[in-house]
Amino acid sequence: MQQNNNHNNNHKIYLGDCLEVMQGFADKRFDLIYLDPPFFTGREHLLSTRNGEKLYQFSDVWKSEKDYINFLSLRVHEMRRILKDTGSIFVHCDNKASNSIRNILDEEFGRDNFRSEIIWYYKRWSNSRNGLLPQHQNIFYYSKTNNFKFNKEYTGYSATTNVDQILQKRKRDYRGKAIYAKDSDGNLMICDEKKGVPLGDVWEIPFLNPKAQERTGYPTQKPLNLLEKIIRLASEEGDEVFDPFCGSGTTCVAAKLTNRNSVGIDISKDAVELANYRLINPIKTQSALLQKGEEAYKIFDEWVDAHLVGIDCNRIARNAGIDAILKKNLNGCVCLIRVQRENESVFESISALLKAAKTKHNSQMILIKTSEDFFESDCRDVYIINSPALEIKRLENYIKPDTQRTILQIADVG
Ligand SMILES: C[S@@+](CC[C@H](N)C(=O)[O-])C[C@H]1O[C@@H](n2cnc3c(N)ncnc32)[C@H](O)[C@@H]1O
Questions:
Q1: Which residue of 163, 185, 361, 408 has the smallest Cβ count within 10 Å?
Q2: What is the pTM of this model?
Q3: CATH fold of 11-153+200-289, please?
């Protein structure tokens, strides 16, 4: 999706080693710093654009861990100098060097200024590893002083929260225990306002999928949704945000979309070109999961699950046309399953399945039919099977008293 922005904020991307460029910046200039440095993976990161025309790369190969720590320490020291006293720094890493990075930050910013370790959690589907599948990265959040900018954010209550807990006022009793407050007549009191639950430190934000419009082809590109969340949390409109390892420019684009100014640096000429291009032409993928929320995907669960009992399949929760995939292939093909909805004709159900299966080449399809249609629909590409309940209904009509007797008589002879 193309975003339009009417505000005239300033955005500047520098080419070079961030240490040298930062040395030219004044003390206490930036309101917020986010960095996503090489993670100490020991790899050359290579990726190409979708059309294969452009190859982007950066190196994350080091002589030793000491060498890496020294590289980062020098730069983090400079970052503290150019951060405002009310500013915060967010350092993105994963388990490769998170211990060392935490030590660097404790030393530079002080343990007292550690605010949170944010866990960026995302779903991945892969069974290639023998062990637990990595599904998160870490973002260390420190402020420069105790007086820092922070915009409180609230989220919804969990489904298991008791309605009384939300609506009724509470107070502490003489033991310090939380109890419901009562007025002078002994009636329970209602809360004035409930904003929700303060934002936690585990954020589920989908990874950019390979087909996402937002994806530029730059290796390790982070989602705009993640950067926007950080920027909104710890800065105000008009503030200046800084990313010393900006890569494809995600931080600067997120700053632009949230009406902040930004400065980015990258040592790669291709990255700088790409970041500048994205600033002119920001494209953001709207995540259906974030827009609709997990709950929206659970609406049909009970109905669909009930009709899939006994079928050895993997349930698909976020697809408009496919409800499940058989675990075993059918005639060498993946087999997609849909359950006809209560308010849906067989024709509509087949259409939804065919549409969803369009891009799933070489697949077989099964529709579990749950109600009779006045108009019989047929489709050569979809196997239609009746649900047990529908099959019993058909039998009720088919087996007349006479037929039953005949069957019994034949059984007797046998
Ligand atoms: C993990 S990537 C950043 C990806 C970025 N967050 C994004 O969303 O596209 C790390 C970047 O640091 C850059 N880099 C490595 N060493 C650098 C240095 N000394 N100064 C500036 N940039 C550097 C690399 O070229 C690479 O683009």
A1: 185
A2: 0.73
A3: Rossmann fold (3.40.50)
